[in-house]
Amino acid sequence: MTEAQPTLQAALSQELKHELKLTRRLLERVPTEQFSWQPHPKSMKLGTLASHMANLVGYLEMSMAGPETDLAITKMPDSPTSTDEVLRRFDVNGENIHKALEQLDDTMLHSVWSLRRGEQVFMTMPRAAVARTLVLNHLIHHRGQLSVYLRLLDIPVPAIYGGSADEAPQR
């Protein structure tokens, strides 16, 4: 008897759940009083980075609303101004993305979505690529940045993949 292959939706859902848990542990450590701190004038401010991470989790859900999203007419949420607001936004977007993924089948994940602002098209890709590239990989990229920011601020960095200098690996 051959074991059934997991669907793309199931695999993405499982991976997303794991990555969101790791990311939340990092966001919890962002101090509100340091939101305006930035390691370099060309770098994002700490609060801007944390807010961006909380918001980008919503891009998969946004991609499922139709064949394209036009940022010229889509109202983006205001940036959170505290760690509690960042965590609330991240949690809501995380719950919404899981609910949205439950509604998708692999056919929908292979269908194409575009992100634009008016006539300018930024990207066109299958929704599975939105989940992997625009959400997961993008989130992991910024999680790396955020862990460096926390290190520079002498805030203990949580274990992510394996231990950190401040924490043993999670079991």
If you had to describe this structure to a student in words, what would you say it looks like?
With 171 residues, the chain is mainly alpha-helical. The chain has a domain at 8-33 and 61-152: Up-down Bundle (Four Helix Bundle (Hemerythrin (Met), subunit A)). It is built from six helices and three strands. The chain has a three-stranded mixed beta sheet with strand order 1-2-3. The longest helix is centred in the C-terminal third of the chain and has 26 residues, at 127-152. The chain is globular, with a radius of gyration of 17 Å. The model has no long low-confidence stretch (mean pLDDT 90). It comes from Hymenobacter volaticus. InterPro entries: DinB (IPR007837), DinB/YfiT-like (IPR034660). Belongs to the DinB family. Keywords: Metal-binding.
Key structural traits:
171 residues, 3 strands, 51% helix, mainly alpha, single chain, three-stranded mixed sheet, Four Helix Bundle (Hemerythrin (Met), subunit A), 6 helices
